[in-house]
Amino acid sequence: MKKVTIKDVATRSGVSISTVSQYLNGRYNYMAEETKEQVKEAVRELNYQPNFMARNLKNRSTKTIGIIVSNILHHFAVSLTRKIEDYCDMNGYSLIICNADDDPDKEQKYINNLISKQVDGLIIMPTTENDELYKRMANQRFPLVFIDRYMADVDVPVFKLNNSEAVKTAYDFLQSRGAERFCYIGVADQLQLTPRVERRDQFLKLAEKNNHLEHQVIKDTNNLLTERISQEFVDTDKTGIILANDFALMAFLNYVSESGINIRGRHHIVAIDNLPLADVYQPRFATITQPIEEIASNAYETLMQQVENQTEPRQMISEYEGALIDR
Amino acid sequence: MKKVTIKDVATRSGVSISTVSQYLNGRYNYMAEETKEQVKEAVRELNYQPNFMARNLKNRSTKTIGIIVSNILHHFAVSLTRKIEDYCDMNGYSLIICNADDDPDKEQKYINNLISKQVDGLIIMPTTENDELYKRMANQRFPLVFIDRYMADVDVPVFKLNNSEAVKTAYDFLQSRGAERFCYIGVADQLQLTPRVERRDQFLKLAEKNNHLEHQVIKDTNNLLTERISQEFVDTDKTGIILANDFALMAFLNYVSESGINIRGRHHIVAIDNLPLADVYQPRFATITQPIEEIASNAYETLMQQVENQTEPRQMISEYEGALIDR
DNA sequence: CTGTTTTACTAAAACGTTTTAGTCATAGGA
DNA sequence: TCCTATGACTAAAACGTTTTAGTAAAACAG
User: Fold this and answer.
1) Cβ–Cβ contacts within 10 Å for residue A105, how many?
2) Interface contact flag, A72 B52, Cβ < 8 Å
3) Could you say which residues 40-79 of protein chain A have a Cβ atom less than 7 A away from any atom in strand C?
4) Is the dihedral of CA A173, A177, A178, A183 positive or negative?
């Protein structure tokens, strides 16, 4: 597969490389109509695709940004990526999607990879473990925004759900439905990820403030769920359950399904993150949807400001409210 | 943000550009230990990242492949991408993910984009509308494989589910459970996508062969579902339902949820594609899982053979069996 | 001590573009 | 008529690497 270069096009159309380049870049100012046609024809005939590498070795911008997704199997993450892709598309940018899998090493690898590929900017859902790297990027004024998570000492704009408010909304909702004891189900987190920490902390704070002594926090859905939660379920009709995210919800529903427990109408449930499943699952449960649209558009805009105006990234935490959907 | 180049590293470590390049490429054969250390130090201090553009302008390979996903919101597509990413990772390749959204124009844009970015090969779930482009790529011996779909006249290896067998398995299963009438629910398809066509055709063939005159094919879940299916549901206990994919399943469950119909135990259902939801939904229904692992590994291997051995793509349809999961 | 080999390093060409600074006709203006 | 402007094009430098073909010194063989 020998590649077609600008030289081939030049030879074929009988003009110089420079003229072909002018044509390709739409600078027709001083170009005879005939020449234009000849080049056009040659490009078509040879099916010429400009070499992006060569082009962007000269140019400043690659018109490409990268997103490093925490976990591509997470519905919130894909939906967000999907939205950002739309914005890129509308503005003539390409989006490279990388899946860090919540693995700091993989994340680091992808960051360096994308920088080396000269992306104009980076949107990251950080694992929070590579702070040295983030700081270095911020110092070098590399265009960068964070989504969903942040670190207090890294000066990068953040766009995220107002986790405390979301949990408060959930808690209030459950209380208004008559819940008397509360259970919070999260997922195992070796990493101190913002959403998990903020949500759990807020839950504990509220439980304490309301003097709801009978509350429970389940951190690891992998093995503990089955043992720990079962008695409570069997014993009471007045438990309010908060499911910290997609994974907690699925783990919980799996537990329900496997244990054969009938939760119909007996417990009130609010899940943070809005899986499509929520629209069809019986019994119905409430969810708190993430403000995906706002996060995506603001993160994109802010990144573009950095890319185009060369403003430097500075810490700025933008929180958006989740919306409770009571089904 | 001025970028650090190999020249800066050379100046800082007091050696020539060539020597730095040798170091970077791990050719230490004829290099003094001291020089090595100095360069290493300079690279570290400057946080130097080689410019991928420049590097791959010289090199043949970019060690990058692209995947063009039909629809990133489709569970099957993401899972497959996830697997392929693992293979890339293991072999030192990077994966660029693009979402064509089942839009032929977007697909074309991304294909050209990725070729222009000099990817070494491309994995595509084709929209089937860009056959001219596919053919041109195949002719130019551009390393290429298809997943999930194919066109008879395009000479590119394909890796996909054996759709006919999958539908037959589903049909047989429903029959064995006592279904007497059959309903197939697909999704609207302006495009003639392989899975949709093959599955529907097979259903019709089986219905005819078995002389099951009371069968129904619903193509468009958007508006027809509500009107068309309701009577049947209300009227009979012996309907067997085949849901053509993720989207059909969700549309159907939405319908069930909104209409308030109780399907508990009354109908037998098999859904093709295995959404995580299937593990938790009540009542239980059977699914046919796609052979994701096999498709991913074989597609990757075949692409790599083309990339590395310069073998040319030739049509070769590899079909893998789905597995019925009866819950 | 001379001639060859090995070691450690470097200058310069090349990759495929874009861009700058031209060249050379031709056309207008005086 | 000569001078300047403009129109149509091009040669060559530059981008940041890798690689080839070298050079010069040190080590070795005879």
Assistant:
1) 12
2) no
3) 48, 50-51, 54-55, 57-59
4) negative
Closest residue by Cα to residue A78 from A318, A235, A290, A241 = A290
Taking the C-alpha atoms of residue A297 and residue A303, their distance in angstroms, rounded to an integer, is 10
Range of the domain at A175: 163-289
Nearest partner of B36 among B51, B19, B55, judged by Cα: B19
Tokens of residue B290, six digits: 């796609």
> Which pair of structure tokens corresponds to residue B320?
């893998």
pLDDT at B229: 62
Shared domain for B173 and B279, answered yes or no, is: yes
Distance between CA atoms of residues A244 and A257, nearest Å: 19
Q: Which residues in chain B are contacts of A279 at CB distance < 8 A?
A: 253-254, 257
CB neighbourhood size of B181 (10 A): 19
DSSP secondary structure letter of residue A122: E
- pLDDT tens-place string over residues B188-228: 777 889 999 999 999 989 988 877 655 666 666 555 555 56
Same domain, A15 and A80: no
Which H helix or E strand runs over A272? strand A268-272
Comparing B279 with B263, which gets the higher pLDDT? B279
A199 & A259 share domain: yes
B46 belongs to a structural domain: yes
Report if residue A327 sits inside a domain.
no
